[in-house]
Amino acid sequence: MERRVALKSMAVAMGAMAGLPAWASGWNKSSLKVGILLSADQSAVLKGVVEAIIPKTDTPGAGELGVGDFVQKMVKDCYDKKSQDILAKGLETLNTQSMKDFNKAFTDINRAQQTQLLTAMEKSGDADQKAFFGTVKNLTIQGYMSSEYVMTNITHYEMIPARYHGCVPVKQ
Amino acid sequence: MANFNIDSKKARTYDAIVIGSGISGGWSAKELTEKGLKTLVLERGRDVQHIKDYPTTNMMPWEFEHRERLPREVVEANPIASRCYNFKESSAHFFAKDNEHPYVQEKPFDWIRGYQVGGKSLLWARQTQRWSKYDFEGPARDKFAVEWPIGYDDIAPWYSYVEKFAGITGNKDGLDTLPDGEFLAPHDLNCVEKYFKEQVSKQFKDRHIIIGRAAHITDPQQIHLDQGRAKCQHRVMCERGCPFGGYFSSNSSTIPWAMKTGNMTLRPHSVVHSIIYDDKKKKASGVRVIDATTKQMIEFYADIIFVNAAALNSNLILLNSISSRFPDGLGNDSGVLGKYVAFHNYRASVSGEYEGFLDSTTDGKRPNSGYIPRFRNVYKQETDFLRGYAAGFGANRMTYSDRNGIGESLKAGLLETKYGNWSVGSHMMGETIPKESNYVALDKNLKDPFGMSQLKISVGYDDNDEKMIKDYVEQISEMFTSAGFKNVKAHDGNRNPGNDIHEMGGVRMGKDPKTSLLNEWNQLHACKNVFVTDGACMTSTSTQNPSLTYMALSARAADYAVKQLKAKNL
Question: How many other CB atoms are there within 10 angstroms of residue B563's CB atom?
């Protein structure tokens, strides 16, 4: 038990470290608010959500690429308290709704059922649920498209183009 | 002064002192050391060595954990820096923090600062357009500010001199309103930019679209290789510091060059408090420095002093240099020190779309854009406002992807890039008129963390600026519409003065000591061994990005100063 507590506080300390990248010399890391935004269960639901938004096909999905952690990090570090609450609440709502409709946790229902719940949130009259869906979808797209896997293997990011041609034919 | 533990006075004595290591200070340092002067270069911030101290320069996009967005706490703690387009995860370490360097805004003014060796030369937009004779003649013709004590012919050889060393890409356009320089191969205009150029030249008299002149090495010459710099690789990540030295910065160019002479002592963490005036010798004898690490005051001595602290900080240092001879700031017999500050009006932009050239796009990246030289009131006064504006212009083929739905269809949609119309855009760069009421001064009560008076900034837009915004929007919209661009929209970003990072003046050059601080050699009229060659010296602002002019003025003044020193006139 004591060991678990120690590990937990280590995780919190690492979270504190993660507030700003190490190279940003001069920025006061200790002044940044810290703490893990989501519980382990909520994080697992978020991973399921991003995978449902961009699933594995013949290439990896957003869940496998760690986009869930990216979404959480962005909301924790860059978004306001209201958005953070909306994220946590949205994940709880998904799980509650999943138990109600399918008698299983969100992470245990099938893809069609997950999609059904997410689509309901997108179309919800509840502003917070709509905001939850919008934020998570946008960040999932950003995290996926800017992932190392996608930029390296699919969109072929060029760090050093070494050229500019002002008028070339569009590739068909 | 508790200097007992520091080296002896002799060890703190140099031939020259340069205050600041940014774009102009780097040039002062290079010129003075090359001409054999033992030179102390004082920089208030930390050292940033070329390549070694560019921690983000080779990071991939996915290595930025917030993908270039800054954490909320950073944004909230730095509201001023956060309004700068270049303040992001990969470059934030090159910006001074708002809360550590307070100042007083009598009117809203975004003071963007780079406190490190190299200053803002790491972050600049690298546009390097020469002034023309029409720009220097402006105040005299239009009767504002005071007459410039120099003209285009005085500075032209020095433009050439600094251009060759810095490496400037550009096209010889043959325009008398924007003189050609010593250019390396130009960047391409793209198909829509070329089309717009043709349309404008057909339909509008004396209006031109050109490719910008920019401090990028497109065609390395021996002098660039000698600096250890290479061809620009079109990464367009300049604000991280360039590992190739592809663009000009003090860090990649002038500072290591000065260091190589063996004549430079670079002292980072040195906040200049004031310049020491010697009543007996009737000239400046040195500077007082607060060591940023120990907070101890140290004096350094030299025969000549170059003030290159960046425009407003150069004002601050002179205002803070009080003596019985100069109770209102060094050289301030006229009372105009700190006054007639001006900037560039960047408030308005115009955007649109073009539905042509749909079978074409661009390939690669370009660290440059199109440029529209000033066409208003150039040869004669023709509008209800004074002076005019230059403008940036660029076109890009828009791409998009289908973001509808979720699941496999979304994934497929995201990965299929589709081409839209071309987007076209322009932003204004307006000349503002220096006025006595736009000024900086020392705040009487508030101190900064070094115990120095905070700078109080009172600089705002005026009616001339508002009229110019209106005209820019009308003219560019008309040019866009005439070229067949659709969906033409104007936007007033309402940005604060200062956000242009082109603040100038306060220590202006002029012919008459009664109305100006500096003479035609950037020399204080009343204290001849002090030279101010950064933005503070500017009598008027014209419309060009100013750094190239500061470089040329610095090299010119350093040449003069060394000649005068050798002739024992200083």
Answer: 13
How far apart CA B6 and CA B475 sit, in angstroms, is 62
Neighbours of A14 (CB within 10 A): 11
β-strand B486-492 against B344-345: which pairing, if any? Answer: unpaired
Nearest CA in chain A to B186: A164
Please give the share of chain B, as a percent, with pLDDT higher than 90.
99
With CB atoms and an 8 Å threshold, state whether A115 touches B73.
no
Is a pLDDT exceeding 90 seen at residue B125? yes
Cβ(B26)–Cβ(B250) below 8 Å: yes
Tens of pLDDT, residues B366-424: 999 999 999 999 999 999 999 999 999 999 999 999 999 999 999 999 999 999 999 99
B11 in A contact zone (CB under 8 Å): no
Q: How many CA atoms lie within 13 A of B205 on its CB side?
A: 3
What is the C-alpha separation between B84 and B325, in angstroms, rounded? 40
Q: Give the integer Cα–Cα distance in Å for B371 and B348.
A: 15
Strands B13-19 and B39-42: parallel
Token output for A99: 């138990």
Helix (H) or strand (E) holding B283: strand B283-291
Determine the residue among B406, B410, B414 to mutate to test chain A binding: the one whose Cβ has the most chain A Cβ atoms within 10 Å.
Answer: B406
Cα gap B151→B510, rounded to integer Å: 12
Burial (0-12, 13-18, 19+ Cβ within 10 Å), A2: exposed
Nearest to B364 among A111, A147, A165 (CB): A165
pTM: 0.93
Query: Concatenated DSSP letters for B347-409?
Result: -EEEEEEE-S-TTEEEEE--S--EEE---SSSSS--SSSSS-EEEEEEEEEEEE----SSSHH
Chain B touched by A101 (CB under 8 Å): no
What is the enclosing helix (H) or strand (E) of A172? none
The answer to whether B508 and B123 are in contact (CB under 8 A) is no
Q: What would the two tokens of residue B323 be?
A: 């003596």
C-alpha dihedral over B520, B526, B532, B536, to 10 degrees?
Answer: -90
Of the candidates B413, B406, B408, B410, which has an alpha carbon nearest to the alpha carbon of residue A116?
Answer: B406
**Side-chain-facing half-sphere of A69: CA atoms under 13 Å:** 7
Residue in this structure with the two tokens 């509650």, named with its chain if needed: A96
Report the Cα B381 to chain-centroid distance in Å: 28
Q: CA nearest A112 in B: which residue?
A: B407
Helix or strand holding residue A166 (H, E): strand A164-169
**What average pLDDT does this structure show over B88-99?**
97
| Residues near B368 by beta carbon (within 8 Å), at least 6 away in sequence | B126, B127, B169, B187, B211, B212, B214, B216
Residue written as token pair 């120099």 = B150
Which residues, numbered 24 to 83 in chain A, qualify as contacts with chain B under a Cβ-Cβ cut-off of 8 Å? 24-27, 31-33, 52-55, 57, 61, 70, 73-74, 77-80
On whether any CB of chain A is under 8 Å from the CB of B65, the answer is yes
Work out the minimum CA distance from B70 to partner chain A, whole angstroms.
7
How many inter-chain contacts (A to B, CB under 8 Å) are there?
143
- For A52, A65, A136, B376, the CA distances from A60, given in Å and listed in that order, are 12, 7, 18, 57
Distance of CA B543 to the CA centre of its chain: 12
Q: How far is A77 from B172, CA to CA, in rounded Å?
A: 49
* Beta carbons of B342 and B434 less than 8 angstroms apart: yes
ipTM value for the complex = 0.93
3-state secondary structure of B308: coil
Nearest to B556 by CA among B532, B527, B528: B532
Phi, psi angles (nearest 5°) of residue A147: -75, 155
Torsion of CA B325, B329, B335, B338, to 10 degrees: 170
Contact B540, B315 (CB under 8 A): no
